Prior knowledge:
Blueprint: E1 3-5, E2 12-13, H1 15-21, E3 30-32, H2 40-45, H3 51-63, H4 69-79, E4 86-90, E5 93-97, H5 107-121, E6 129-134, H6 138-147, E7 153-160, H7 166-173, E8 179-185, H8 188-200, H9 202-207, E9 210-212, H10 218-232, E10 241-246, H11 251-262, E11 268-273, H12 278-285, H13 309-315, H14 320-326, E12 327-331, H15 334-348, H16 354-369, E13 374-379, H17 387-394, H18 403-409, E14 416-419, H19 422-430
Parallel strand pairs: 5-13, 6-7, 6-9, 7-8, 8-14, 10-11, 10-13, 11-12
Antiparallel strand pairs: 1-2, 1-3, 4-5
The protein binds pyridoxal-5'-phosphate.
Pyridoxal-5'-phosphate binds next to helix 11.
Amino acid sequence: MLYHSTTTPSHRVDLKEAILRSLPPDNGLYMPDTLPVLDPAFWEIWHELTFSEIGIAVADAFFGEDVPPQALVDIVEGTVTFDAPLVTLGPGDHILELFHGPTLAFKDFGARFMARLMAWLTRGEDRELTVLVATSGDTGGAVASAFHNVPGTRVIILYPQGKVSGLQEKQLTALGGNITALEIQGSFDDCQALVKSAFLDRELSERLNLTSANSINLARLVPQTFYYIHAARQLPEGIKPTFVIPSGNFGNLTAGLLAMQLGLPVDHFVAATNRNDVVPEYLRIGQYSPRPSVSTISNAMDVGAPSNFVRMQALFGGSWDAMKTHVSGMTFSDAQTLAAIRTVKALYDYEIDPHGAVGWLAAQKWRATHPASATITLETAHPAKFLDVMEAELGANCLEIPERLAILAQREKVATLLPADTAVFRNWLSS
Ligand SMILES: *Cc1c(COP(=O)(O)O)cnc(C)c1O
């Protein structure tokens, strides 16, 4: 399979280049030349398959031309070592819990798959791979965990100072070993811009053998399609779900669109955002105006220039009308989000994290006008990752802290403080 740039479709590369280079030189994003469709035989038996079996079929559809079957099985089985259960709150109101992995966020799926695919693509090479990643909260932890102690790799994480939760920060800064954390005096968008600048510097990028672990990397998106399929078949047969996706960089939503492309029956997608609402605005008025992000309590969605928007556009052939047919946008304030956390607890005795709460609000709004719909809201992180917010709303000790998080909380933060300055960052990288 070849991959092309969304900016210059004639620029084509193979799988290894698309995954390890991550970013085409023209500043576009890589897309598969042909979008795979799972054959009818799969859609006859998909209700009976295990989560891993679904993953293996999807991975084969994307990567089967380039990666031998046994290697793909190992990559998928090494990734999907935990479940993504569907929890039903009320009639038609379903929550897909994506936080049962090692770092308690959905990003574990993408990061674990990517680490394994990269290890396979570079097998037998002796050059160290430097994985560069900007994080608004959860990506860094998932990537750090996925690559920690993987021989031949070094991970550099950029995170915005003061804009990630205390436990998220520990996940980035307390692992040590081959993981280095850079605390950037700026926003997530600044971090993302620094990472991009390093990639666009060909000389630096070649010398350090740089690769990116952000959701610009296709290897992260593909495994995220697994759980859309896995979730849909947990509904009674014949019910087409509406997926509600709390969104920031829109990698998760793009993965949902890829799942629909694979043949998954989907009624609709709802993109739910906090006040960083450039995509809901685009869906409403047809104009895309990226702008600086603002800080909210659902910090992993504080993105002002969502990197996967160009992929969403590409999947709809650049047509606003086509995108609107399949995707609606909704946006909610912090005050509404906090109220939702309390409501969900009061009505269902369920603790929903601030990101999931934004999604849950959108799901209620959707079903209010589409009462026959079954919504599946993606719960993207465990509420204990946002302990301050949760305890302020629901009271002290409202949550049990999973042991893997409690252990990290005891460890020391180690990070290097840098200004959001391209020249300073490149200097630091070079030395
Ligand atoms: C990353 C993240 C999001 C946003 O996902 P995108 O794929 O960037 O849209 C939402 N919620 C949580 C908890 C996250 O970590």
